[in-house]
Amino acid sequence: MSDDIGDTIPASPEVPKPSVLELLSEGPGLTDLPDEIAQTLRDAGGDPFAVSVTGTDAPAIPLPAGALLTVVRLAASFGAEGIAAALRPGAVTVLRGVLPDDTELLRSMLAHLLPPDWQVKDPMRGTRPGPDALVFLEASRDSKGKLSDLAVFDLRRKIRAALDSATPVLIALAPDIDLPPALMPQALEQRRFAPVTADILIAALCASHSATRRIDEEAVRAALPPEVQLADLPMLGFSLAMQAKTARAVAERIAAMVAKAAPGPDTGPWLEDIHGDTPALRAARQIVRDLRGWKTGAVAWADLTRTLLLYGPPGTGKSWIARAMGNSAGFSVVSGTFGQWQAAGHLGDMLREMRKTFADARASAPSVLIIDEIDAVGSREDRDRHNFNYKVQVISAFLAEMDSIAREEGVIVIGTCNHPELIDPAVLRAGR
């Protein structure tokens, strides 16, 4: 089977090749089977909704699963109006949450969302992009998927080159990379690469596992795992699951994959197991509900509470609640302390370790970054002038990392401490 979905769409010299979205919207002849025959088909593992008047239950032209899902995810990420806006002269759009493994396929599938005769271009390759072109930019990685400082520099160089023309630009960002500070978010159109939800999967299955563009949607939804778990399955897992014969079998295979990958009953802690109605628990539960909604696309990242400070006497469960939030939201948990960072050595070593923790949180996104004993950051208003320059540099570097995280999607920061009054006011500022 070809990796290029465009190669699977028939065309003649006289008739323009239809786009993938047009192909998905076509509706071949439908048939309403008698109830008895439909139930017999279900009992045999078939799908009566997928059977056409010719008796077939599969599309005439098979579509590669990964390519198909990518096209539907792109369409869901933008919508018709969003695509039109992204193609306006001078438009700069940032698509966040694009995993490294998805980048190459995303680039090749973009062409199916563009108007006829438009092309996807790289400003550093070949001739200067023409008027009917979309410049696509992403950071290159080595054979092990690692992101080097040189790759980040190269991406910024490409961005500068692309901005020299009025050609629209699309920047695909993985969770572990951020834009140059000079590119203020307010000047950009920022979107999130839509995760695979039940609706997106069903739209794809209607094209890949039906001759009628219909499937037994009720049975598929009943077989699928919760969307919070669905969002954690990698694209390779979906591609494997979609090798099953029917849409319901695909859903059952996905559910089995998710169940096998789920943590065992001894893994924890879980927010659901912590009883009480304290302000901290109420805030934690609301944030977890919102994080689950974000994973399914129901809540925008901008509408989330993305930072939380848990403070109180020792032994009151602050770190326990923070870890439980990550587990219950289905987020990775990354932790660090100023004590650990300072143990690395002198100022440069300390800052290197601190930045590494923040980078680990980005690379593990979606993630919860827990900073225990955050009051050790200190305050520039402290009257004790001992090591004042050291303290200023530490606080400034910490604020820079917090601001960088705030410009991205996928990482929330939870601080825990005993003495919030010792924390620099800039760290506690609303919005940070």
From TrEMBL:
One Pfam family named in its UniProt record: AAA
InterPro entries, per the entry: AAA+_ATPase, AAA_ATPase_domain, ATPase_AAA_core, P-loop_NTPase
Highest taxon of the lineage: Bacteria
Entry's Gene Ontology molecular function annotations: ATP binding; ATP hydrolysis activity
Gene3D superfamilies per record: P-loop containing nucleotide triphosphate hydrolases
Domain AAA+ ATPase positions: 304-432
Stated name of the protein: AAA family ATPase
Species of the source: Paenirhodobacter populi
